[in-house]
Amino acid sequence: MVEETDRLLSVGQGEFTLDRYPRLAREMLRAWDAADEYVLNHLTELGVAGGSGLVVNDGFGALTVALAGASSAPWAVQMQSDSWLAHAGTRANLEANEIDVDGVAMLDPLAEPAPFDALLFKVPRSLALLEDQLQRLRPHLRPDTVIVGAGMVKQIHTSTLQLCERFIGPTRTSLARRKARLIHCTLDATLDVPTNPKPTQYRLDDTKLELSNHAALFSREQLDVGTRFLLEHLPRSPQARCIVDLGCGNGVLGIVAGRHHRQAALVFTDESAMAIASARENVAAAFDDERDITFHWTDGLGGVAADTADLILCNPPFHQQQIVGDAVSWRMFQQARKVLQPGGSLWVVGNRHLGYHTKLRRLFGNGEIIASNPKFVILKATKRG
Ligand SMILES: C[S@@+](CC[C@H](N)C(=O)[O-])C[C@H]1O[C@@H](n2cnc3c(N)ncnc32)[C@H](O)[C@@H]1O
Question: Are residues 216 and 97 in the same domain?
Answer without folding.
Answer: no
